[in-house]
Design brief:
Blueprint (H helix, E strand, L loop, with lengths): L5 H27 L5 H9 L4 H11 L5 H13 L14 H36 L4 H14 L3 H15 L23 H35 L2 H8 L4 H26 L6 H6 L5 H10 L3 H29 L7
């Protein structure tokens, strides 16, 4: 097992901090280059476009300050864990809105990611072992067909087929309406799972193909290596070679993909949440963009950036322990 050097850790930490700073800076600039002004937008909605009301809002939101002052205040607030106050749902803190939305996103994205990787590893391995046979041809053919189909089309087919026409599953929301707030959590598991089934299924279908083909390619590449050929020449069974030598090395590239997928899980799937009207972070971001809600946009993307960078860093720390061949310089 490789020993991680302090220099390696420091270099990766410095890279992670720099990447996070760049992401947060872009996060600050993007809402401001979209055009429009939150104060003018809100004034047009609630005060018939009153300029006096818009000016009051600009002062209240801090939009009367220069862009440099806003940027420095933004960074200082982030260092203190303060994501600001939502413009569109004033004066609700952004952190409270995100805390309410994140669990729903994590539920469908992490569940679909783990299930998708597990199925992909199994089917990809079986396809590689049966290379050229009917099963392999079916797996590869179906994978390329699914990959060429836009996600929104797959999601709409699942929604219309299983939800609308057959009526087997609900077509919107995360829970049935009218549930008593005091209902014990264990009684909510069934309804929540029932409403999450279609979003999870759609994410599994569209992500499974690429991961399955990758696993198949990894297995085939490993079986072409010299040490596998030597093991076969020694008379070792194919199943033993697969479990003891090939599978671990074939899983290493997929491990990176899994960590990246988990890191971006907080970002959710905006298209998924829009199609199924699911109240996660993706739908929250879309509503914030439509309402020019700078703090909410910044808060959501800041959380996403932090999670992606953190999972990348964790992967960098773990990968050398899994693969001693990795250069730790």
């Amino acid at each position: 097992m490789a020993r991680i050097k302090p220099e390696y850790v420091i270099k990766r930490l410095a890279g992670a901090v720099f990447t996070l700073w760049v992401a947060l800076t872009i996060n600050f600039l993007l809402p401001r280059v979209m055009g429009g002004n939150p104060a003018d937008y809100i004034a047009s909605q609630v005060a018939m476009g009153s300029q006096e009301y818009a000016n009051v809002l600009k002062i209240q939101f801090g939009l009367d300050k220069s862009i440099i002052e806003q940027y420095l205040l933004y960074l200082i607030n982030l260092l203190h864990g303060n994501l600001g106050i939502s413009f569109s749902i004033f004066p609700v803190p952004v952190s409270m809105i995100i805390i309410r939305a994140i669990p729903w996103t994590l539920l469908i994205v992490i569940t679909s990611t783990l299930i998708s990787f597990a199925i992909a590893w199994v089917l990809g391995t079986l396809a590689a072992l049966k290379q050229g046979k009917i099963f392999d041809q079916l797996v590869v053919g179906a994978s390329f067909y699914i990959q060429s189909t836009p996600y929104f089309f797959v999601g709409m087919l699942i929604l219309m087929g299983l939800g609308f026409y057959l009526g087997w599953f609900p077509i919107a929301h995360s829970m049935p309406s009218g549930i008593n707030p005091g209902t014990p959590w264990y009684k909510l598991i069934g309804p929540i799972s029932y409403h999450a089934f279609l979003p999870v299924l759609s994410l599994i279908v569209v992500s499974l193909a690429g991961r399955m083909v990758m696993m198949r390619s990894n297995i085939l590449q490993i079986f072409s290596e010299d040490y596998i050929t030597l093991a076969q020449a020694k008379g070792l069974k194919r199943s033993k070679i697969l479990m003891k030598y090939a599978l671990r090395n074939a899983l290493l590239p997929s491990f990176t993909g899994l960590m990246l997928s988990l890191g971006s899980a907080v970002g959710g799937a905006i298209t998924t949440e829009l199609i199924f009207a699911y109240p996660g972070i993706g739908l929250t971001i879309m509503n914030a963009i439509l309402n020019h809600d700078y703090p909410l946009i910044q808060g959501c993307f800041a959380i996403i950036a932090f999670c992606v960078v953190a999972m990348n860093l964790i992967a960098d720390m773990i990968y050398p322990l899994l693969d001693p061949r990795v250069n730790l310089n």
